[in-house]
């Protein structure tokens, strides 16, 4: 790819008026470094509450790097400068209790990673660690999270059996259920459907549309159709820069920047 | 020669070598068992050894071997678990950690005679522990610790980082993630390592000759007060084990049935070690299935 083809500082970033819309998360001048490798530059993005925001861009453009910084999963791996505002708190400051924060900002990974425990325990485990021990309450949480993740009907008769016996798509929905059992505000998803077949992918997408009623979702995806199907807003990443951020409709129909246009129309590079 | 012929040749060579190893092992084990098993009887297992007359058994040695094993594991397991967790989960990647890892490797390749003599000089003589079970257990700990630590570290390392991320992303602290997610997943490997190590410890003689000693003091199996010198649980008495017993009979045994006692003891030792090895596999598989399949 011709690196010099696009001007990385020529960007179009939509700004919300916080008075009109409620923001779930706002980053300000976020910079990420892996040692000497400056992997993400100056991202100032706002994420609206109860919406799905998609992060798209070529491989290595810094999407995961950015996403993992949002719930501090990069602690100890990368240096992250700048602010991440969540409910008037800068969660990128060292004073923040990251474990507490991660209960509010959950994450689902690219490869399904259920614990090698039973389906039920996969969901109750972290909830119990959090102090909820009441059996009835736990059963309720198991049922409601599995329902929200659109997995309940498929597994309700085998809650005691191993999560590893589920198909990849079911495992991924279990991971989503596990994350929402903690009742987070925000769900970060890093290519949650990339390892799945088309049918499981559609199921996960339906799940996301359903989840949107209660959660704010930020999702990384390589799948353009997916981005345009499920997301309300889209940010286009290129070489560690956010080039364009707008309503998904605009990004896919009238992108303002040439790089975005080339990428979404498949003429990239 | 074309690649196919070379491949065939290499494969056959490997098969021959593997076959040779199996034959030698089968011959050794078979010989020991054929010679020794006829001598094993309830009387042999439950009566004390004799020095000058025939008809002696191995009850003290048998008990001592197991007691020493239990003590050794009690000391070495917690230490190696802690060290293994540290090395796998917490140790920073720097030269200090590398030195630590290297020391463990060196320690694991020390000949057991050296471990025994070191134990003799330091614990038996310097610390005045005398020939005693506790001195033997400490020597065996030095012998067992490095391998057990590497085993724990490897078992933990083999658990995917995705599991660690899963725990962390749910707001668990690193420590809770290790305790509740990583260790259970690594447990089959850890247990297999412990039991295999137990087999090694059980058959060890050189490290014990100068630490736990070569005499089986009289044990009173009705007295379970560990502070009484005749109690089986007393850890300051000298305690000959099965392996040391075999060595001693063969070097200076003067009882008329020395050959038979030696063969019988060897057979018992081999059988116990075989049981350890088989149960290691069985336990490992069973735990693996329990933690991956139905976790009811
Ligand atoms: N753990 C890490 N250590 C060092 N460098 C890293 C690490 N993770 C990512 N990087 C670097 O950061 C840059 C951005 O990578 P990142 O994984 O964020 O890209 P991405 O947009 O998520 O790509 P993909 O679509 O392939 O997942 C790359 O140059 C990569 O080499
Ligand atoms: Mg990525």
TrEMBL record, chain A:
One GO MF term attached to the UniProt entry: ATP hydrolysis activity
Organism: Ligilactobacillus acidipiscis
GO process terms (BP): phosphate ion transmembrane transport
Keyword terms, alphabetized: ATP-binding, Cell membrane, Membrane, Nucleotide-binding, Phosphate transport, Translocase, Transport
Protein name: Phosphate ABC transporter ATP-binding protein
InterPro entries associated with the record: AAA+_ATPase, ABC_transporter-like_ATP-bd, ABC_transporter-like_CS, P-loop_NTPase, PstB-like
Record-annotated ABC transporter domain positions: 25-264
Matches recorded under Pfam families: ABC_tran
A cellular component annotation (GO) from this entry: membrane
Signal peptide bounds: none
TrEMBL record, chain B:
Keyword Transmembrane attached: yes
Membrane topology label: Multi-pass membrane protein
Compartments in which it is found: Cell membrane
Keyword Lyase: no
Domain named ABC transmembrane type-1: residues: 62-280
GO MF annotation, one: phosphate transmembrane transporter activity
InterPro entries: MetI-like, MetI-like_sf, Phosphate_PstA
GO BP, sorted A to Z: phosphate ion transmembrane transport
Transmembrane intervals: 12-34, 66-87, 99-123, 129-148, 258-280
A Pfam family per the record: BPD_transp_1
SUPFAM superfamilies: MetI-like
Keyword annotations: Cell membrane, Membrane, Transmembrane, Transmembrane helix, Transport
Gene Ontology CC, one term: plasma membrane
Similarity-based family: Belongs to the binding-protein-dependent transport system permease family. CysTW subfamily.
Protein name, entry field: Phosphate transport system permease protein PstA
Organism: Ligilactobacillus acidipiscis
